[in-house]
Amino acid sequence: MATNETNKPKGGSVCAVSTCVNYSAKSKNQGRTDISFHRFPKDLFYQKQWIHKCKRADKWNPSSSFICSDHFKNDDYVRNLQAELLGYTPKGRRLKPDAIPTLNLPCHFIQGDEVSTSTTNRNKRMETKAAQQAHEEIITLALNAEIPSVLNQLPTMSIDESRDYKTLYYDLLKDHNKLKTDLSMQEKELISVKNSNESFIKINESLRSQLKLLQKNINNLNILIKSNNLENLKGSGSSTESDNESLQEIDKNKFEMEEDAIEYLAGWVAKKYKLQFPELGLTTTQCNLELTQEHDYQIPTWIHHLSYGGLIVPSQDFKNKVIRIERLFKKITKNRIPKRLGVVRHLTNKIIRHMEIEEKYKPVIQTYIKQRIFIRMRYLNQHSNLLKKKRKAKAQLQKLQKFRRLMT
């Protein structure tokens, strides 16, 4: 016995039975997860019996020793009903307080392998019997319970009905996906409406501020008109000649303003095509250098008032052609915007046919006409807005007058 004990490996949990060669490292290498190692009990009575069963002749410490599960019966362990019902072996099994090792001991080792195999077969039969008993107990409890079975209440379905339910399920799934996409589209539309609403609020605020400024300007103009009317009434020596002179002066100022505006727009076009057609105009710095060399007592143009170097002054030839283009533009359009496709191209071709202009200057004329249409559109929009405001103010004034009459 002593020789067998000295051959036992050291380290880990080792079975204390003299003829047993089980230890924890070996069981792990062999993949035997059913072996467990149990400490000696603290109760002296059962501890002495465990020591007697080990049949050890050498000196050893029972308080730090183990006995493996191969030496215990299944009845020695505390029952785990959950593991028995589900059919799995638990990781750790707990011995009963009065458990004593009885299997595979040195006294039975002489009988050979027949005893060990019979004991293992008996243990297996006992395990299966215990599992069957546990199953029968659960079944009897379920039958005795006063719970209506759901399975009996379910109607029996045929194959066709099950197929109908399957198609119905797929149809409902399609409807669900469709509703999901519709919901996402509606959410996107709601977000776009909110964004447009915010932009409209900003536009409304800016229009209100502009309306207030226009109202102030109208009030100032009304005050100026009243003061001018009073001055005209005081000056009794006014005659038709003075009226004619004032009208002529107004026409002259209007003509000068139009000419300055045409020159400014022609300079903008010349600046746009400065690299392609440098002969269309010069910068104001170059013009100022030429004017300093020559004495000119004329009043400077609007471009010279605005800038001393950044703007382009159109050449006299280009300016004359632009004035001619402006007259033809007014004559053809008649203070309106033609409603047709390709209006810029149509007007450009029509004006070129009436003038002797080289074909290479066609994009220059087209750019001028395009900007001229934009200016007229802006003017007509402002004019229509002013007319609407005047009509609205007139209607409100009439309502107020009517209300005053009713009150009086």
Automatic annotation (TrEMBL):
Residues 8-104 form the THAP-type domain. InterPro entries: THAP_domain_protein, THAP_Znf, THAP_Znf_sf, TNP-like_C. It holds the Pfam family Tnp_P_element_C. Signal peptide: none annotated. Keywords: Coiled coil, DNA-binding, Metal-binding, Zinc, Zinc-finger. Residues 204-231 form a coiled coil. The keyword Signal does not apply. The keyword NAD does not apply. GO terms for molecular function: DNA binding; zinc ion binding. PANTHER family: AGAP005574-PA, THAP-TYPE DOMAIN-CONTAINING PROTEIN. This is THAP domain-containing protein 4. The gene is THAP4_1.
